[in-house]
Write a structure and sequence with these properties.
By secondary structure, this protein is an alpha/beta fold. Helices cover 39% and strands 19% of the residues. It contains 13 helices and 12 strands. The chain has helices at 34-37, 45-51, 64-77, 89-92, 101-116, 132-136, 145-160, 173-182, 216-242, 263-284, 321-329, 350-366, 409-420; strands spanning 3-8, 11-16, 27-31, 82-86, 120-126, 166-171, 247-259, 290-301, 335-340, 371-377, 396-398, 405-407. Strand 1 and strand 2 form a beta hairpin. The two termini are 17 Å apart. It binds beta-D-glucopyranose (BGC). Residues 33, 36, 171-172, 175, 253, 294, 296, 339, 377, 384 line the site of beta-D-glucopyranose (BGC).
């Protein structure tokens, strides 16, 4: 790749000349997460919340736990060379400190199946759902939660290291913390009512139990966010102690906050980025070999434009992934796009959405950012948390009655792009 060095605002940037192709070895693929696709996981905080009718029940879903080979065959057929999964903590550690070797064996089989199809595995060790014993005893409000989490992560990473090189500890700490302790729409349903004034998305039914009214949830939120950062750092340290060669990072949801030229709006965007992304990243980046980016939406302060909407009612703004990459690139670690996608049941916008995101990713590479993957969310339709199974993110449609998999047209457009390794 041809590079030109330039000085910009005092910093040393590396501008690459227009790139004909993505770098050799760039990872193209899609992602899923255990609770959203595997089916029949009953010993988690989410399963309990479903029984209490606070979130939709998950049930069998796509039965990916049994049908993963079928799904990986499709990923292969679609030209992917990488795939991101997550491990269900409650399956591996159903009781505190007791690890289920048969379930670890299951995930080894899953990784073997990926390798057999030349799909490079990316493993997220924890994607939102907690084992009941942990959530019931306080979860990440617990003082010893970082050690508990690190013990689980190092056990799994050392069991799976033969099959996988890329691990991330936590998926989207801020989404977990804000939905659980500020909005009150996800377990443990604690709510800080003033959040409504700044909330920019709908994440499900809101609960306001008497016991957690007032300022308390806000304090708990800060404690949880701090513990999550400590948990990541402890898990990183434990995993690397066993095997320094593994690549270990965190997956960060970045909302791209930007603005028009009004100084007040500029300030709002800066503060929002600081609150949403930088506080957590500053606490953890020194314990990251790489950082995963999940990008879904932006918020432009002082913006008059009317955007088309996804089925989640989010602005269609795929080009914003460039800004999100820029925000993370401040930490100067290799970046993996671990999720980026659109809920679009009719498959009207998906192909264009993906193409525009890939264009923006190419621009990021041309400007010298070290971006190494694009993994679309999601390979198959799944359980969209408190919004249930109605939101369709999949490249592949799932018929929940028959479990039939049907490839959506946009998936073939993504395949063409992957095969060209270019736009
Ligand atoms: C999460 C996924 C979720 C997706 C779409 C990300 O925040 O990691 O679990 O399904 O966004 O909302």
């Amino acid at each position: 790749m041809n590079q030109v060095r330039a000085h910009h605002q005092g910093a040393d940037f590396c501008y690459n000349l227009p790139m004909k192709k993505f770098p050799e070895g760039f990872y193209w693929g899609a992602a899923t997460a255990s609770y959203q696709v595997e089916g029949n996981i009953e010993n988690t905080d989410w399963a309990k919340a479903a029984k209490e009718d606070r979130v939709p029940p998950a049930g069998r879903l796509a039965d990916h736990y049994n049908l993963y080979e079928k799904d990986f065959d499709i990923a292969k057929e679609l030209g992917h060379n990488a795939h991101r999964i997550s491990i269900e903590w409650a399956r591996i550690e159903p009781r505190e400190g007791e690890f289920d070797e048969a379930e670890l064996e299951h995930y080894k089989e899953v990784l073997r199946a990926l390798r057999a199809r030349n799909l490079e595995p990316f493993v997220t060790l924890w994607h939102f759902t907690l084992p009941l014993w942990f959530s019931e005893s306080g979860g990440f409000e617990r003082k010893d939660s970082p050690e508990i989490f690190a013990r689980y992560c190092s056990k799994v990473a050392s069991s799976l290291e033969e099959f996988c090189h890329n691990f991330s500890t936590i998926n989207e700490p801020n989404v977990f913390g804000s939905n659980g302790w500020l909005r009150g729409s996800w377990p443990p349903f604690k709510r800080f009512a003033l959040t409504d004034l700044v909330s920019i998305t709908n994440s499900g039914k809101i609960f306001e139990p008497e016991s957690t009214k007032g300022l308390k949830p806000l304090f708990l939120y800060w404690r949880v966010m701090k513990n999550l950062a400590l948990a990541h750092n402890a898990a990183y340290t434990a995993i690397k102690k066993n095997n320094p060669r593994l690549d270990v990072g965190v997956v960060k949801h970045v909302i791209y906050f930007h603005s028009n030229r009004n100084p007040l709006n500029i300030l709002k965007a800066r503060l929002a980025n600081y609150f949403w992304t930088d506080i957590f990243m500053r606490r953890t980046y020194k314990y990251c070999d790489s950082i995963g980016l999940n990008y879904y939406f932006h918020k432009k302060f002082g913006d008059k434009e009317i955007y088309k909407k996804t089925d989640m009612d989010w602005d269609i703004y795929p080009e914003g992934i460039y800004g999100a990459l820029q925000i993370l690139w401040r930490y100067k670690k290799p970046l993996y796009i671990t999720e980026a996608g659109i809920a679009d049941a009719e498959d009207k916008y998906r192909a264009d959405y993906i193409t525009k995101q890939v264009e923006a990713t190419k621009k990021a590479l041309e400007r010298g950012m070290d971006v190494r993957s694009h993994m679309y969310w999601s390979l198959i339709d799944n359980y969209e948390w408190a919004l249930g199974i109605e939101k369709k993110f999949g490249l592949v449609e799932i018929d929940y009655e028959t479990l039939e998999r049907k490839i959506r047209p946009s998936a073939w457009i993504y395949k063409e792009l992957i095969e060209k390794n270019s736009l």
